[in-house]
Specification:
The chain has about 100 residues and is mostly helical. It is built from four helices and no strands. It has one domain. The chain has helices at about 1-25, 30-50, 55-75, 90-105. The longest helix is centred in the N-terminal third of the chain and has 25 residues, at about 1-25. The two termini are about 15 Å apart. Keywords: Membrane, Transmembrane, Transmembrane helix.
């Protein structure tokens, strides 16, 4: 009885992993990038209205670096199946090798 419940939950988790993989492959990054660029342009438009002096250029540089880091991390960790945000299934492997192997005996 317990074995059937565990196997059903594993199948459900496997199905959810497939759904996440399909969502990652579908790639909605184009829509995100369009929104990110529009936000960048609208936010930095306020800095372009002033004369370019050292202070304004410094603020614009900090804003560009911050925005670049945010966009990089969002895009890099958007797909859980590729580096740098790859998540290895060690928890499932440990479960399978330990507790599920004992149930099969």
């Amino acid at each position: 009885m317990l074995k059937g419940i565990v196997v059903d939950h594993l199948r459900e988790v496997s199905g959810l992993r497939r759904l996440r993989e399909n969502a990652a492959i579908a790639n909605v990054q184009d829509l995100f990038m369009m929104a990110a660029v529009a936000g960048l342009v609208l936010t930095s438009a306020g800095l372009f209205t002033h004369a370019p002096n050292t202070h304004n250029i410094f603020l614009l540089s900090i804003f560009a670096a911050y925005t670049g880091l945010i966009v990089f991390f969002v895009v890099a960790f958007a797909n859980p199946y590729h580096a740098p945000g790859m998540v290895m299934p060690t928890g499932f492997e440990n479960l399978f090798m330990g507790e599920l192997a004992e149930l099969g005996r």
